Amino acid sequence: MRTRLLLGMLWCLGTMAYAQDFKFNKAFAYDANSERGQSIYTAYKKAYEKSIADLVAKRNAILNEINQEGTAISKVTDGEKEIKKIETEIRELSTSLKTLNNTEDFKKKTFHAFFGSPESDAFFNVMYSEERSVINFLNNSGFNLGSKSGSVYTELASGNMSTVRLSLGTMVSNSAQEDVQEAKEEEAFQRLSTSGGNTVLTLEYPLLYWSTKDNQYNLISRFIGKATADFPAFGTQTSDFAGSLLAAVDVYVDASTSNGDIRLYANVNLSRIYGTEVYKENLGLDNANFNFGKITTGVVIKNKFNLSAMFKTFSSEDSLENRNVIIGGAFIF
Fold first, then answer.
1. 313 and 236 housed in the same domain
2. CA dist 44 → 38, 89, 93 (Å)
3. Which of 59, 205, 240, 314 is an S-S bond match for 223, by CB 3.0 to 4.6 Å?
4. Residue 136: what pLDDT?
5. Could you tell me which residues come within 8 angstroms of residue 54 by beta carbon, excluding any fewer than 6 positions away?
6. Which tops the pLDDT comparison, 119 or 270?
7. How confident is the model at residue 179 (pLDDT cuts 50, 70, 90)?
8. Is 115 contained in some domain?
9. What average pLDDT does the segment 56-72 reach?
10. 279 and 318 inside one domain
């Protein structure tokens, strides 16, 4: 009962988080190489520039007014407060305009590597925008089903910071195994092969990006770092805390129909994991530090639903190789 309740709560939280997360990113979803895309970019750019110009004029008018001889002290104080608010708005809009221009420059090129701060920021704005959502579904709320186990994952919060993207997610897993040890290992494998743990802090850095001008074909490589924690209160079979650190190289490739309604993809992830003793015991392993890889294929339908199958796993630990096929699904918000 507790697990079902947690699953429902997490699904709702994930839905609400994603409904609000990308409200600004519609500005980044256009095709920069099309006439319509250029008009969208121009419209956003003009809107930002006009808003900034209006605020500058308003600030200057207040400055002129309070600098006049004989102006009451109270009026000067109120004017200075208003100026501070206006300058904050100007800085925020100027940052948004700069981001928009960086994104426009990013979209004009079909190949990127060795990302600096402006390029990384533009990459994440484009890839995770709610309309374009090329790899949005890889981190979205969703469910995964193994032969005798299941899990629900949701990304609760995310944001860009310099050259990286940070996100915080949580997951609940459950096993139908009757044997306690087998159930513990099944749940631990379910967490390992999907999100990594029932609480996950993820860092992403783009390594390589190639795309055709119409985005019909894409190749993306990222470095992914994770810090995971398994808390007993989140439905794990063990009563002890388990944690891990993960460093991975992730490669994603896709091809879509000309109208973008169907997108076929493959995702390969190779990682090195450093776990605690309890983490090792939960998986039934001999070593707490090991290599792990997985291959996932799937289809995205109308950028609204993702159906995937993780059909291949490989590891320096024999017991983790090709354990079972995990079917996943996610609604893309």
1. yes
2. 10, 17, 11
3. 205
4. 47
5. none
6. 270
7. low
8. no
9. 88
10. yes
What is the average pLDDT across 200-219? 90
Residue 162 has which token pair? 């310099």
Q: Are residues 146 and 98 in the same domain?
A: no
Same domain assignment for residues 214 and 184: yes
> Residues 248, 292: one domain?
yes
Per DSSP, the chain holds a count of helices (H) and strands (E) of 6, 11
Same domain (yes/no): 235, 313: yes
Q: Is the Cβ–Cβ distance between 218 and 110 less than 8 Å?
A: no
Query: How many domains in the chain?
Result: 2
Q: What is the pLDDT of residue 215?
A: 79
- The answer to whether 106 and 126 are in contact (CB under 8 A) is yes
Q: What is the pLDDT of residue 287?
A: 94
Residue 28 has pLDDT above 80, yes or no: no
Structural element, H or E, at residue 164: strand 164-175
Bridge partners (DSSP) of residue 252 are 220, 267
| 4: pLDDT strictly greater than 50 | no
How does DSSP classify residue 165?
E
What are the tokens at 12?
């709702």
Q: Which residues pair with residue 310 across a beta bridge?
A: 296, 326
- Residues contacting residue 268 through CB under 8 Å, at least 6 positions apart: 250, 251, 252, 293, 294, 295, 296
Phi/psi for 261 (5° steps) reads -70, -30
Q: How confident is the model at residue 36 (pLDDT cuts 50, 70, 90)?
A: low
Q: Which helix (H) or strand (E) holds 55?
A: helix 35-66
**Claim to verify: residue 200 and residue 87 sit in the same structural domain:** no
Other C-beta atoms closer than 10 Å to the C-beta of 178 total 8
Judge whether residue 10 has pLDDT over 70.
no
pTM: 0.74
Full residue range of the structural domain in which residue 242 is found: 2-23+124-331
* Same domain flag for 265 and 287: yes
Length of the chain: 333
Contact between 173 and 151 (Cβ < 8 Å): yes
